Amino acid sequence: MVSARRFWLRLQTLFRRERAAERLDDEVQFHLEQQIAENIAAGMTREEACHAAMRAFGNSSLLKEETRDAWGWTWLEQFASDLRYGLRTLRKSPGFTTIVVLTLAFGIGTNTAIFSMVNALLLHPYRFHNLDSLVLLFENRGIDEGPDARRISPGDLSDLRASSRLFEDIATYQYRDFNFSSEGRVDVAQGCRVSANFFSVLGAAPAQGHLFSANEEQPGSDQSVIVSNRFWQSRLASDPQFLGKSIRLNGRNYTVAGIMPPDFNYPVSMELWVPLALTPAEKSDRARLSLFALGRLKPSLSIAQTNAALNNLSRRLSELYPKTNAGRALHLLQLRKELYIYSLPLFLLLQAAALFVLLLACANLANLLFARMIARQRELAVRSALGANRTRLARLLVSEMSLLAILGGAVAIAASYSSVSILRNSISPAWTKWVPGWDGIRVDSTVLFSTILLSLLLGLVFGLAAALHLRHINLNTVLKETGRGSAGPARGRLRNGLVSAQVALALVLLVCAGLTTQGFNRLAQAYQGFQPDQVLKFEVSLPENAYPDDAKRNNFFQTALRGVSSLPGVSGAALTSNLPASNVDNEKTLFTIQDRPALQASEAPAADFQTISGDYFSVLKIPLIAGRFFTESDNATAARGAIISRTMANRFWPGSDPLGQRFKLGAADSAEPWMTVVGVVGDARQNWWNPATFPVIYQPYLQSSRSWFRFVLRAASNPTGYASAAHAAISQVDPEIPITELNTLETEVQDSIAIVHIMGVLMAIFGSVALLLSSIGVYGILSENVAQRTHEFGIRFALGANPRDVLRLVFRHAVTVSGVGLAIGLPISFAVSRAMAAFVFGIVSVSLPTLGVVPTENSIALKNRDQHAIGEKFLDLAKALAAVPRVVREMPHRLLEAEDHQACRVYVERMPDCSRRSSFVAVVQPTDLRQHHNWSHFQRLNWSWLGRILPQREMRSRSVIVGKIVAQ
Amino acid sequence: MGKPNDLVQGTLDLLILKTLSLESKHGWAIAKRIQQISGEVLQVQQGSLYPALHRLEQKAWIKAKWKETETGRQAKFYSLTGAGRAQLEKEAQNWSRLSAAINLVVETT
Asked: Residues near A339 by Cβ (< 8 Å), separated by ≥ 6?
């Protein structure tokens, strides 16, 4: 009860403070009046009565303060008054406030934008329950061949499920393209065949409808389909009565059982999920790695333990089934890590760049705040004299800085809403649908929270730094001195050091930006081996029921190809199973070379496998190295031929001619027919993140029949104009067959590395911002320096220095500061560029000597850096030039306005480097020469006369001693 | 007598609570009463009452109300709460224990 009452009272004193203060005044007033009345009644006069009453009462203002302390919440009151004072001072100096807030906003804003990307793509790519316990299960023979090759064989999987209870559950899936026919139109949709527990393993459920049941995994009973939200909106026209409806996929009827929520995105960009119905023969197959498997770890087992158990199982399997499983090992890869392999280095780079920009902004701010602190020394000294202790002053400074930081953070957040959405929309959805989590890039609560935290942290850091600086101010001296204060040599060094650090940081950032942009450009050109310009591509897929056998399929494609290549303006057309630079991995196959020792399935070499038509290489301008291309005569009745890539020729027939050699697909005991090598062609890279080139086997399409192909045609002019003609050519053969994925090859290639371009652009932005910020910093310190030395310059002018000498002085300072910065920055940027080469794909590793000296192609890198550095220097000197005219305008008579009797003392103390060997000037009254109390100080220093004493008439009543201290 | 000593300031709470235990008073009346009853020995600096009064009010041992005096002026009258009475008991016991102990020490030497 009592504590409740106390709490209520404390709240009251918080909210009704003004009223309570007035009441206190009334109370005290009443008391005094009573006492005065008593005194008067005792016989004193009114005046005596008043005085006696006041004396008896005591110091009323002190007592009122003590009473107010008893109310509590004084810290809050002080904090509020600090904030109000801070707002007032900020309003009074709008220029300073604007610059500080903008600098802060920029530094914080870049970090917000990058962090929103990191948050969406790295931390929450999938919104699954407990993402960290989901793992991919796959097997390979030691070499990880990329995401499409991370598969497991069904036989091994059932052993894994049965024997060791390692996982809570395992789900499996296979990719499948579906021809979706409705109302006469046929479209292609990408989908998966999934096990019944697929969605429950992921922890997702349909937004409407229900999951598959276990008995739908029997072949023949798999009649339902779950669709994605996007499919429902675009193809089913958001039909609210769709549940239970029947749609036709690949010639079969499926019932729509459910629809997934809009943010479900696994596997990426899939639209349909049907039950995975394997025949018993398929289920026990161990040879082909045909399934993708996803497992949920048991919470009681760690990854290391699970790995060890998997290794045991692999060993047992390879003993039990040596023909298929020898050398095969089971692996697991955390789902999150699967994404990290490609994206983590890039985002780390971006985040580091953003942090650099923040550091630069902070360095600028530190300089600005230093200058401001010096200007405020007086005010702080007065406050301290009135009774504020160091803590109180520190609190004042911290609250002011926090106010500025919050303002900066607010501006940053406001700007980041638009900048983040610009970032998100900068890449076309055709590609971002492949990036899990991309749609989630927004300023959500996590990003907001971290931004606010960052702003508060910055405010705290700067406030505390300013408060620490208080220690160095001798408040006595400050109060006594008139005019401006000086920072002293130590502070000057610190500020110069800050600017040098800025220059170094900016240099590093510029170098990184330059290298990155250049590297990314080289990446774009790295799709060497083919020329995508003026090529149109599209995809055609044949449904199973209309084209059930090879003959019909071959016939269709042959006719279609003939039709397309005979279009006017088309110089060549071809078929292919996969395009280079498509970011889609090829199918892989084992193969066995004739007359070589027979290898088991577990040891046979593997190669990429593509099916093409004869003109493929000439359309894409991939060079022929030996032998010949395919022709129409390489059909089903002719001898089996194959073309191999250069990598394959070099790897498997090193030094000898592969033409005429024979090999077959599959292991030594496979029933595939032997093929003869008829040609060798150049390599073309398949995706941008995998720099290795794989051996590729090309087969003619008439000998290796497929139900879908990609068409490529090279046009004489703008390829998009041929779209309708291509449509017409295909419909002429069969009007029911649609064309999908129509695009120019060049656009596809550009889009496929869009993310890399974006990064290059961002890095370039960061680099230029860095340059801007550091130029501002250098300008700031230079003009500050010039302002401080105005007095000195005035004397120099008085003594006859011409403006060029003074300019030289200022230049020397500017060059020293930036020179030190460059000297520190260059080695750091060397180191950083080497580290980056290891990180970012495509930046060919540059070695130190080539970077430095040898004019190889890497001299481009050096030139860039040089240009940047020189550019930076020019900017600095330009800033210095801008600062100097102010000096030239200052008239020498400013010197003579100073307090003359103190002129001598002023000069010994004010010269920034008078403790070193340098020239300085002292002006003394001739009459006071010996009586001046600082003369002894002069005498103590070692003088050497430089020369000229100006004639009396020039200096009126003064004599001028110009000397140089040689030693102290 | 002379200046108020620290002992008096330390027991100011006790004095105030006791003074208020009979009837509610305003600040000046409390000061006069303490002076009166103690036979002018305890000259408490009048102003130091007010921080003490407000502190006791924050601790909910006394409560305050603005009322009219006999002369028609508005004044803030303090009165004891139930918790205040308990506190008064406690402090009075403490005081008698303390003073008894000090007496013992002083008289038995």
From this structure: A121, A122, A125, A436
What value of ipTM does the predicted structure carry?
Answer: 0.87
CA of residue A965 relative to chain centroid, distance: 54
- Is the CB of residue A361 less than 8 Å from the CB of residue A101? no
Q: Binning pLDDT at 50, 70 and 90, where does residue A954 land?
A: very low
Nearest to A622 by CA among A643, A649, A642: A643
Question: How far apart are alpha carbons A360 and A352 in whole angstroms?
Answer: 12
Contacts 24+ apart (CB under 8 A), B35-38: none
Which amino acid would we find at residue A413?
I
Residue of A383 and A529 predicted with greater confidence: A383
Q: Of the candidates A9, A23, A63, which has its C-beta nearest B47's C-beta?
A: A63
Please list the residues that pair with B64 across neighbouring strands. Answer: B78
Distance to chain A for B107, nearest Cα, Å: 36
Task: Decide if pLDDT at A929 tops 50.
Answer: no
DSSP A122: I
Measured CA to CA, the distance from residue A817 to residue A823 in angstroms comes to 10
Closest in B28, B45, B58 to A58, CB measured: B45
CB contacts of B60 in chain A (<8 Å) are: 2, 5-6, 9
Is the separation of the CB atoms in A17 and A71 below 8 Å?
yes
A683 and A645 Cβ atoms separated by less than 8 Å: yes
Contact A64, A24 (CB under 8 A): yes
Spatial distance between the Cα atoms of A565 and A715, rounded to a whole number of angstroms: 10
Distance CA B44, CA A658 (A): 115
pLDDT of residue A407: 92
* Other beta carbons less than 10 A from residue A895's beta carbon: 24
Instruction: Taking residues B48-57, report their average pLDDT.
Output: 87
A355 vs A914: which has the higher pLDDT: A355
**Average pLDDT over every residue of A104-127:** 87
Selected residue of B16, B32, B42, B46 to mutate for chain A interface (largest A Cβ count, 10 A)? B46
Cα B88 to Cα B14: distance, rounded to the nearest angstrom:
7
Backbone angles phi, psi at A588, to 5 degrees: -115, 150
Comparing A890 with A255, the larger pLDDT belongs to A255
A294: closest CA among A133, A476, A116?
A: A133
Least confident of A142-146, A566-570, A723-727: A142-146
Give CA–CA dist B46/B28, Å, rounded. Answer: 8
Q: Is A958 touching B (CB cutoff 8 A)?
A: no
Q: Reply yes or no on whether the pLDDT at A887 is more than 70.
A: no
CA-based diameter of chain B, in Å?
A: 56
E strands, A493-563, are: 535-541
Nearest to A2 among B45, B54, B83 (CB): B83
Helix (H) or strand (E) holding A476: helix A475-480
Beta strands at A208-209 and A252-259: parallel, antiparallel or unpaired: antiparallel
Backbone dihedral angles phi then psi of residue B40, each to the nearest 5 degrees = 65, 10
Q: Quick one: which of A838, A586, A842 has its CA closest to A690? A: A842
Rounded to an integer, what distance in angstroms lies between the CA atom of residue A592 and that of residue A609?
A: 14
Q: Residues A567, A571, A577, A579: what is their CA dihedral angle, to the nearest 10 degrees?
A: -130
Q: What band does A521 get if pLDDT is binned at 50, 70 and 90?
A: low
